[in-house]
Design brief:
The complex is a heterodimer of chains A (about 350) and B (about 270). By secondary structure, chain A is mainly alpha-helical. Chain A contains 14 helices and 6 strands. The longest helix of chain B has 21 residues. Chains A and B meet through α7, α8, α9, α10 and α14 of A and α2, α3, α4 and α5 of B.
């Protein structure tokens, strides 16, 4: 499959893309047949892929370890929620809000980036981790003296995406086929993800992308070669954050309800795990990591209990425990056998390869 | 009289009690090959780091091409026209030779984030131009045949040349080379000498730190000698070679001379 996509022959390459497109179009209908819940899971998977693609800019391209990435997701989610819910009585259309989400998250990205410019590696990770927690705690407490975020109760009744009367949340019949809300969202989400992937590829193969790579490889040499590392690092944080902000806005609309609970440290770690597991720096690898880490736990949730009941007569191990066990096992196996991720980026593969 | 491209004016840099550079002044004429020599720990590399903005001098300043470099960041110094190589090679080792040189073009190109995302015609043209120029430069230093190999897989001599190529890609007026011949064999050194002379012929000024006396004395027009962070001699190679202080710095002082000096001090 990947060979097809990399083929020199353009018609073969288009065949590869066509097959993927067909699979992406057919997938939700198959899932719908299994239950609308599965389409919802697919939507979350695409959303997490969008998040991972954003984090990949910061971690994969520029090499800045960010453990608080979920903060930008939170900022985007709250931006959407405040501008499209009864909380403030504002109901702006989504195509107006999503750019605002990106802009606000971008601002927060710069806000985080500016004080951390001199930090590297572990130290940067700790500061970003703290930043993620600060945002969550802020959301939890910004209900006084003026009620902005409604504190731990969160914000309810968030608007669905509507486009001139076309409601993404409503079930309706189109072309003689019943389209559930999640099914409609699915296609929008995939379109947005494809756009994000394209932007990511273009950044990677640009002057800016090369500057990021240079910073990751050797910051002092990069500076001596005329790369303004301050500007480029801020740009990486800002770009990554914008992706997170857009994903957050979509999350808000998908769920209809958000609270600080959704933006805990664990979520940052999961997104980072998606990037690392998939293959830091490799855009398709990151998408694959996100999809796998979103689907596998859900599959377990639906299979572990019935399976144990069937075979053992009762539930011995909770699905959640199995999930963590498998997750740990997967990480250990990855470290041993594929340290650069499932689909390693060319550069990472070289870095981790033994010296010849 | 020739124009002065770089003027070091009473440059001083101390690290706590260590006087890495004290009151170093000299002038580099445009279009020359200028040597900077001295025993290990004399402050040569510190001088490069102060010059290129990695450290800020405690006192003194640099006038480059008529403008002061004081307070400029390393990237601004590079933009002003000073490119350097490193004593311990600092290539982007997991990137190809071509990519290394393409990164060097960064400072002379403009495409921003929007251009990259939208892939405008200007961006695509610039991108193509970057690659063409990078290949030219690789060819110029003689590593074109390794363009697609990773920097870390190049031979030591080729890595040194690639570092020069990356520096040349920034279109410098002054090329500062920090021990480019270190670790090279005799043939490679000869090739390096030819390359440095070619670079000068093409209009650039070269500032050269080098330990290999044979190479230095053969290639430079003028040089300055540092010892313990102070400049102890300056001038043409043949004058410096015969300078008593320089000979002492490199070879040490004979017992006889030492006694004589001590006797003088007592008196």
């Amino acid at each position: 499959m990947t060979n097809l996509l990399k083929s020199e022959n353009p018609s073969l390459r288009w065949l590869g893309f066509g097959m993927i497109a067909l699979a992406l179009i057919a997938l939700p209908f198959a899932l719908q047949w299994a239950g609308t819940a599965w389409v919802r899971i697919a939507n979350l998977a695409v959303l997490f892929a969008l998040l991972s693609v954003g984090l990949n800019i910061v971690v994969g391209f520029a090499g800045l370890l960010d453990l608080g990435y979920i903060a930008f997701f939170a900022v985007g989610a709250y931006t959407y929620a405040l501008l499209a819910s009864p909380h403030f009585g504002l109901h702006l259309p989504f195509y107006v809000i999503l750019p605002i989400c990106a802009a606000v998250a971008c601002l927060f990205g710069v806000l985080l980036g500016a004080p951390t410019l001199k930090l590297r590696g572990d130290y940067l990770a700790i500061v970003t981790l703290g930043f993620g927690e600060i945002i969550r705690i802020l959301m939890n407490n910004l209900s006084q003296p003026i009620n902005i975020t409604n504190g731990p109760q969160g914000i309810t009744g968030i608007d669905n995406f509507t486009f001139f009367g076309f409601d993404f949340g409503k079930k309706e019949e189109i072309f003689g086929f019943e389209w559930s809300g999640p099914l409609k969202y699915y296609f929008l989400l995939v379109a947005i993800l494809m756009l994000a992937v394209m932007v990511n590829f273009r950044l990677k193969n640009s002057r800016i992308g090369r500057a990021w790579e240079a910073i990751r490889e050797d910051e002092i040499a990069a500076r001596a070669m005329g790369i303004d590392t301050t500007k480029m690092k801020l740009l990486a944080f800002a770009m990554g954050a914008s992706f997170g902000g857009v994903a957050g806005g979509i999350f808000s609309a998908l769920q209809g309800f958000i609270s600080p609970e959704s933006f805990v440290l664990g979520e940052s770690i999961i997104v980072l795990a998606m990037v690392v597991l998939g293959g830091m720096g490799n855009i398709w690898g990151v998408v694959l990591g996100a999809v796998l880490l979103s689907f596998v736990p859900e599959i377990l949730r639906y299979t572990v209990e019935p399976f144990q009941k069937m075979v053992l007569g009762q539930v011995w191990i909770e699905p959640e425990i199995i999930r963590m066990l498998l997750f740990g096992l997967a990480l250990v196996l990855m470290m041993l056998y594929r340290p650069a991720g499932m689909l390693p980026s060319a550069v990472r593969k070289r870095e981790l390869a033994k010296e010849e | 009289m020739k124009n002065i491209i770089l003027k070091a004016d009473h440059v001083t840099k101390h690290f706590g009690g260590i006087k890495a550079l004290t009151d170093v002044s000299f002038e580099i004429p445009q279009g020359s090959i200028y040597g900077l020599i001295g025993p290990n720990g004399a402050g040569k590399t510190t001088f490069f780091n102060v010059l290129t903005g990695i450290y800020t001098p405690d006192e003194g300043s640099f006038i480059f091409d008529g403008k002061s470099l004081t307070g400029l960041k390393p990237s601004d110094v590079c933009a002003a026209g000073i490119a350097r190589t490193f004593q311990n090679i600092r290539l982007f080792s997991n990137l190809s030779a071509l990519e290394n040189v393409m990164i060097g073009r960064h400072v002379r190109t403009r495409a921003g984030i929007w251009g990259a995302m939208l892939q405008t015609k200007a961006t695509r043209d610039e991108e193509a131009a970057i690659e063409v120029r990078a290949r030219e430069i690789l060819d110029y230093v003689g590593v074109a045949h390794r363009a697609n190999d990773l920097a870390k897989h190049l031979s030591y001599g080729d890595q040194r040349r690639l570092e020069i190529a990356r520096a040349l890609a920034t279109d410098p007026k002054l090329l500062a080379l920090d021990e480019p011949a270190a670790g090279m064999n005799a043939t490679e050194k000869l090739g390096l000498k030819t390359l440095i002379e070619k670079i000068r012929k093409d209009g650039m000024t070269v500032l050269l730190i080098e330990h290999d006396m044979k190479l230095v004395m053969n290639v430079v027009d003028q040089l300055v000698v540092l010892e313990y962070g102070k400049s102890i001699a300056e001038g043409l190679p043949r004058d410096v070679q015969n300078n008593q202080k320089v000979i002492e710095a490199y070879l040490g002082v004979s017992d006889e001379d030492m006694e004589k000096a001590q006797a003088e001090e007592v008196q």
